[in-house]
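Exercise 7. Predict the structure of U5 small nuclear ribonucleoprotein 40 kDa protein from Phallusia mammillata.
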Amino acid sequence: MSMAVQPHSSNYGAVVAAGGPNNYAVTQYDESAQRPRTSNLLAPIMLLSGHEGEIYSSKFHPEGNILASAGHERMIYFWMVFGECENFHLIKGGHNGSILDLQFNTDGSNIFTASTDKTVGMFDTETGERIKRMKGHNAIVNACSSTKRGDQLVASASDDCTVKIWDTRYRGAIKTLQLNYQVTSVCFDDTGGNVILGGIDNDVKVYDIRTGKMTFQLCGHADTITGISVNHDGSYALSNSMDCTMRVWDIRPYAPQERCIKVFTGHQHNFEKNLLKCSWSPDDSKVTGGSADRNVVVWDVPNQHVLYKLPGHNGSVNDVQFHPNQPILLSCSSDKQIYLGELSK
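Solution. The predicted structure, encoded as tokens:
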């Protein structure tokens, strides 16, 4: 694989780049522009280059020491978060189509992938071995999610108008939720007993996976739901939509009738119609979402203000995530690059 690494200049005074499987890295830092450091990153901004196609998803390992990324190339890249951010491993041959989403399980021992080849993959994080190939969808699988506790279940959302629930101990899906529209996003709640899903009908829905029945429907978005994330205590769901808003919903069983409690604006979707993700900070005080205007946007939850609008990418920002225990933001883009950016505390 040919690797091209270009140093990146930033307004923080750092020039840092890290490259792919050749473990090539370039690091330069302007001490005169240094500001107080808040993380263990080698420099305030790290640019990870090596992908040769659009990157649709990137996630931190639960321990925060490595990250994984995937996209158009059908491969999973593993990178070190600290030091020179070496690309130390690739998983090839796991899918026959682009990987649209990936998720670590709770302890990080496995990674799950959703692909345009109509399957969900399960891989051993350490060895890269494909443990399971979950087949049953009849169209592109847009998103996947795994439970945080209890039995290891996986949910997958597809253009075939279904969400399938998989128990990794068994071969086929243990439950299929049949809907009337393409499903573009899915996420388990904190208990693993419900899935929150969204699609092209603009509404967020909560389903009880035991009964297969819809618990409630959350209306307010005016376009396709592209990403859903549940906060850390399981009380609230965050949704990203092509209507250029993100919303916070109260998903507790006995919440008030008006469940939409926050609306965030300031990011963009465009004609590409990429499935832009969203996520919460570890303390749930901030949220972030993908944006088609090439910026990484972070909002303050209580006041709904934009805290950061971070430039740097040259394409749609498709996935964003906060580090589990340091003020670091991960973003990946259609420009084939990944950024790790240090935030002020």
